[in-house]
Amino acid sequence: MNTPPKPSLKERQFALRESAILDAVDALLSGKGFDLMTMDEVAQAVGISKASLYKHFDSKELLAAATMSRLLDRTLDKVAECTDNQRAIDKLKMLVAWSVLEHLEGRMPTLPSTRSSIHEFMMRHRPYVEKLEQLTEILGGWIIAAQEAGHINPRLPGEVVLYTIYARPCDPVTDFLKMGGAFTDEEIIDAIVTTCFNGLQPG
């Protein structure tokens, strides 16, 4: 069996710079969204020239697509940590808690809405769409299992539950609670998970 050649120093530096670029975009998309983000801001955040940025991504759309695809990779990795003996409802709660933590720490880019100029581009970007479909299929199975177990209202369409879960890390309540300074990150996460799955009724 042939061992693949190790990447050169130049290739490793390129990969590290690309990772730094995507980290910066995570923060910018989390803070202001795609439409307000500029390539100049990305280059400045990373500390590279705009020309160097374009060697990695030749458009803002491709940059956002790479960032969102990486987010889905991270999410699928988190999903893969779940075990078969975990209840479906606990898996869903874990994923919501993790996604809210990612948002609080500036690693959760804002999902493209149907009104965003990036939405149509993302829906044509096959790597993103394929990963989104994979994640949706997994979560759909968890939702059905949780409904059958009586942990989620079975009268709710699966799409309603799915989009509710997808929207939680983008909930402005998280930012308001964080800015208020009265709650720790753990308390905010617990509050978002509780209201997501239990509503406002007493436990």
TrEMBL record:
DNA-binding region: 38-57
Cross-referenced Pfam families: TetR_N (PF00440)
PROSITE patterns reported in the protein's UniProt record: HTH_TETR_1, HTH_TETR_2
Keyword Thylakoid recorded: no
Protein biosynthesis listed as a keyword: no
GO MF: DNA-binding transcription factor activity; transcription cis-regulatory region binding
Domain HTH tetR-type: 15-75
InterPro entries linked: DNA-bd_HTH_TetR-type_CS, Homeodomain-like_sf, HTH-type_TetR-like_transc_reg, HTH_TetR, Tet_transcr_reg_TetR-rel_C_sf
Keywords associated with the record: DNA-binding, Repressor, Transcription, Transcription regulation
Name assigned to this protein: HTH tetR-type domain-containing protein
Source lineage: Bacteria, Pseudomonadati, Pseudomonadota, Betaproteobacteria, Burkholderiales
